[in-house]
């Protein structure tokens, strides 16, 4: 212990004298380890940490799939759910749920509260327990008994009487009276922490019939039975789906054509399915930067150790053994890397606290992200590993006989050994290789993002105000009341100064969850194996498509004359029109929506035929790249012919959308003071927000790549500058023998070019391996795009040339007389 104390004190004195070296090393370590700590905290919290429920590895998500109809992932129907409940050999329990929102309280002071409607089995699946009162029972799921609530801890604490006295009280929810029966523990949530109110869903006998088998309007989770694997459960569900198809009679062939199946996935993997590859890529990028920094620091330590060769040799000659020399150098570097690790942890904590304000990612489980002891241990472990590597490598090159030769060679040029020179060159080549891989990845993500930005959304988002309204069934009990409310709001909004067009819809682009439904063209004869399609279904008022600037391709848009009593009409997008009537005029044709499963194979007497009056351009609904959320086109029905309670409002303005917010709010309040617009955003902001999951990895990758480029450039400069300093006598001899300044400069530039070439060859191999990891994040570019790769090579070459010019200039100005006079 006394020896360690002396080594530490000696290291502190030396580092105090060599402040430039210490500061450079600490700054590099703090930035790299801080970035690692922050990214690892995100990866661990989002990807690696188990969900906060007992035996969360047994939790699964179940969903139906109709890929032939363009629906890779649908919800779950009520009859299917009850069939799953009966599979006790596969599932311990299953539950349906829907995300929604309620108005809590009454009058103008009522507040909007995000909520969930769940089957009584929901909390049993999660194995959750109430801290006050009870959870839902099966009786609460019977019609007439569902007016009970379970509150989240935070919401309950805000009620009169607080946590201890809220159970048994009544609350007004959507203008109906509910009784609070339970309170959840502090911190309990399901997927979204702001959901603090749960209602039971009550199914009527009709909801469980075969007619509802294909209404996938809920999400379903389940808990696997003991000793049942996900693969075994999936096999059982596929067999179950096959049995359903076999007994559907005339619908069987259509179900085979749409390739209907039931699917299952672990809940934890499913929650992060959209961000897993991006986060893995980010973590790989930050680890690469740390690796480059480690190489740079090792090179810096090697140069410093070479400069201290005489001092170390003197200590060795005075009796210090190789072990003591090694211990001293390692102690110095460990001291620095541990301090750098501590600074990195502080920087990582600051980064994590800044995440909400940066709004970089719409990450699942974002509320769980924090630095815990595992991340601290991981970061300090990296610091120790770096300290050992950076400390040991120089001692290996200066040990034993090399220390003895340092005294004999003092005063000569080139005191560094050949091994040390080769090691420094190899380290710089490695930096170039790693920088090439990072820059290639960043370049591919950047090129991909540019391709995404060029995707036409199908609407003009500039100058469009958007928001939502949610009238209550208790206040607007029928279609006539909803139509009247919508008409009055639109009338007042359209009268506002600066409003160019306004309309309502059941789904705004890049907004909330959409609705889709099968639609069939009258008289369309499908080819063998052709599937029905389930496009996006939107109910819109006149003025909506004008407000969004959706182009009319043929026919007309909806007008005020398209009322509840006028003939049923419909507008299709171009994708649907091409599918149903390729090369033909669709205007005047008819389509229908099945009202029963049997109507898919043969329309029954109750189906409503709608005449096509217009064709509009295709509109991106869920993102510029829609992925699994893509549907086979979209169709629009007049809002008056199918009023809905979930209303989106779109207003095209002559100026800034934000300037109209207060006016629109007053207009809505003049119709119903209790209904306030919410989810208010300019449409441009919705589009920007949809790009976050691609923009953020791209920006961070560019930052990592530029950091790597800087570190590699510094490494090239440092090695060449050191070589010039060590080879002053050799350069002087060359110049005395007739070499000119251009020849000497070329000698140094060739050294730099060799380092870069070696690094590029190794980096190219790394870039080939990178393809496997980055392919899923690319759009419109290949994983080995030649333009990107050539650009990266050019950038690296220019940076290397800039790094080489300084040492080359110094070498070309060496005076032969001065160089040869040195001893």
Question: Can you walk through the features of this model?
Answer:
This protein has 823 residues and is of the alpha+beta class. It folds into four domains: 186 residues, no CATH class; 186 residues, no CATH class; 148 residues, no CATH class; 204 residues, no CATH class. 49% of the residues lie in helices and 15% in strands. The chain contains 26 helices and 21 strands. Strands 1, 2, 3, 4, 5, 6, 7, 8, 9 and 10 form a ten-stranded mixed β-sheet that branches. Strands 13, 14, 15, 16, 17, 18 and 19 form a seven-stranded mixed β-sheet that branches. The protein has a four-stranded antiparallel β-sheet with strand order 12-20-11-21. Helix 2 packs antiparallel against helix 10 and helix 10 runs antiparallel to helix 15. It starts with a helix and ends with a helix. About 1% of the residues have low confidence.
Largest sheet: 10 strands, mixed
What percentage of the residues does DSSP assign to strands (E)?
A: 5-15%
Tell me roughly what share of residues is in helical segments: 40-55%
- Number of extended strands: 21
Radius of gyration: 34 Å
> What is the tally of helical segments?
26
Regions with pLDDT < 50 over 5+ consecutive residues?
410-415
Shape: elongated
Average of the residue pLDDT scores: 83
Tally of domains:
4
Structural classification: alpha+beta
Oligomer: single chain
For the record, give the distance between the C-alpha atoms at the N and C termini, rounded to a whole number.
Answer: 44 Å
Summary keywords:
823 residues; alpha+beta; ten-stranded mixed sheet; 21 strands; 49% helix
